[in-house]
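Quick one from the shared queue. A colleague (R.T.) flagged Sidoreflexin as missing a structural entry in our internal table.

Convert sequence to structure tokens.
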Amino acid sequence: MSGELSLNINIKEPRWDQGTFMGRAQHFFMVTDPRNVLLSSETLEEARVIVQDYRAGVVKPGLTEDELWRAKYVYDSAFHPDTGEKMFVIGRMSAQVPMNMSITGCMLTFYRTTPAVVFWQWVNQSFNAVVNYTNRSGDAPMTVNQLGAAYVSATTGAVVTALGLKSLASRLPPIVSRFVPFAAVAAANCINIPFMRQRELKYGIPVTDENDNRLGESASAAKQAIVQVVVSRIGMAVPAMAIPPVIMNALEKRAFMKVSRLTSTKYPSLSFVFSLVFATPLCCALFPQKSSMSVSSLEPDLQERIRQISPHTTTVYFNKGL
């Protein structure tokens, strides 16, 4: 039929050029859209069927190109790119804004006592552990014991770090102590992400050529992927946790803001909600999700294997995770 949608649209790749920051930003604004969390199971399943059928050469009657791309982004927001499994809802990147809005607000408000710091850091790191596992790279499963050990290591290390920073901050001016939550989150990301993705560091993640032919698994690629994700996650926290302390410190000096603790947190709360909406996709866009590295940077045995099976390949590609 002349009106049937062409099968030449490459929905394996994002709609926008991933070689530019703006292209990646447009892509992640779609993937991290908080409204995707509210989509029903039926809507997600319909998107999955449309995408998988199209990849198999089957076009739903009457399907338009815009509807196809919309289905792809709904699919990408809820299904893992390597395993194809539906991701746990609070672990999806589209849940980052509502979840971080709640947790960050509590961390910025209840930071003065040790029990409060311990509790909210534990809540935050538990949430981060879910996100880090959900958005891991590769398709190799983790056993319950591996997952449990990773969770305990990640959350314990992060909470201990937060307490250490709080102890240091108690001897510093109030404005400095307000940055304890941000410093703790930044340090904890450096602990939580590697621990929750430690299997990748040990066994490697899948690397492919430019045509998506799998060439092997690389721990070197995993290290690069995890570093990029850590940098992105710390970047996400900067506008939400580094700016509100300055605002709160200024507001609390004004008499009318001292009347109510709720009032004194209203305006900075609006600030970090606004920041989170933009920080999540923009920081995800710092690096392409489909990252790359030269074959010469891989492990020697994998380099030799690639030279044998694909001698013309000089660059490999991999999903860095989010």
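Residues 21-86 form one domain.
The two ends are 40 Å apart (CA to CA).
Added to the table.
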